[in-house]
Amino acid sequence: MLRARLLNAEEKEYYNRFVLSAPKGHILQSWEWGELKGKGEWQPYRMIVERVGEGESQEPTPVAAISILARQIPLLGKQIFYAPRGPVGDIHDAALMDFLFAEVRKLAQEKGAIFLKIDPDIRLDDKEFLEYLKTRRFKAAGQAEGFEGIQPKFVFRLDLSPDLDTLFSNFHSKTRYNIRLSTKKGVTVKENCNIGYLPVFYELLKETAERDKFLIRPYHYFEDMWNTLAPAGFLRLFMAYYEERPIAGTLAFLFGDKAWYIYGASSNRDRRVMPNYLLQWTMIQWAKVSGCKMYDFRGVSGNLSEDNPLYGLYRFKKGFNGDFTEFVGEYDLVFKPFAYRLWTILEPLYQKNIRRLIALKKKLRG
């Protein structure tokens, strides 16, 4: 018999143990990620599905889980549900998934949610799961080529099962050359930096954002991320130095047997000594030594034309010989059809106005 229930804070370790051990367990489905997003405008709900035996002495066994982030939509007076990279469990067990989503629907009715958005860690070539989504009336949403989706739809992933020498020899020759060049020039990488290095990293991130023309979150978000994830061992900061100056840095997630490169920053100065290549190699070695089976370079564009301004990022990540991976993307399970139709009309207008406001602010700053 299956049962589903929401968990309280005292059951954090119980929840995380299951998500950590599950084949599709993901850092964004961890208890801590919900805590981090809960510091902002989201309310986290953690649901577990357990198999319960008939005998009272038998312990329930967790078989599926989902961490849902809920946000209030002022104009509609309703909530939206979002499960980043969820759910967790055997996604090919249709009966199990049906039970889980039925329980989510009950929670949505209780909280007044319009829909549940998922963007699971499932490859596009998983036809069985795509058929499941279709037959359960999930609606495809946010099929973006670039970085317009909530989570990247296209990534590079490196299988860490070979030994380090083999991994290095499999890199593109130019990538190997740049790693060696960085070391020869005297670049050093400090691993496992403490929170005292975070402001230094953030200054480099601001410099990168100004150079490459993208937006970043305020410093307090990174401080909250550190204070939430680092104590659990889920976050690591790496800093690269040249002639005793910090010139680049990266933030990485580690969760179970998986690692993700999540943020990168570099100074305009000394880019010729290739610190980003050495940082990536250092993180790959760290992930391998930490027992990881997979290293995720995170997002790249789905438009692989060399004319694409993002092609350079694709080429950089491709040089490490990872597997170019396309996920199924975003899908919505609709609970309130009329309100959902209003949402699909209003949300693009809201995003458009936000982009205009950002552009105006940048223009006023000169």
What this model shows, in words?
- It is a single chain.
- This protein has helices at residues 12-21, 31-38, 94-111, 127-135, 164-170, 173-184, 198-212, 219-229, 275-289, 311-318, 337-365; strands at 2-6, 43-51, 61-73, 78-83, 88-89, 113-118, 139-141, 154-159, 188-190, 235-242, 245-255, 258-266, 294-299, 323-326, 330-334.
- The protein is an alpha+beta fold and 366 residues long.
- The chain folds into 2 domains: 2-150 and 327-365, Gcn5-related N-acetyltransferase (GNAT) (Aminopeptidase); 162-292, Gcn5-related N-acetyltransferase (GNAT) (Aminopeptidase, 3-Layer(aba) Sandwich), CATH 3.40.630.
- Strands 1, 2, 3, 4, 5, 6, 7 and 15 form an 8-stranded mixed β-sheet that branches.
- Helix 6 crosses helix 9 (275-289).
- The chain is globular, with a radius of gyration of 22 Å.
- The chain starts with a strand and ends with a helix.
Topology:
Elements lengths: L1 E5 L5 H10 L9 H8 L4 E9 L9 E13 L4 E6 L4 E2 L4 H18 L1 E6 L8 H9 L3 E3 L12 E6 L4 H7 L2 H12 L3 E3 L7 H15 L6 H11 L5 E8 L2 E11 L2 E9 L8 H15 L4 E6 L11 H8 L4 E4 L3 E5 L2 H29 L1
Parallel strand pairs: 4-6, 12-13
Antiparallel strand pairs: 1-2, 2-3, 3-4, 3-5, 6-15, 7-15, 8-13, 8-14, 9-10, 10-11, 11-12
Helix pairs in contact: 2-8, 6-9
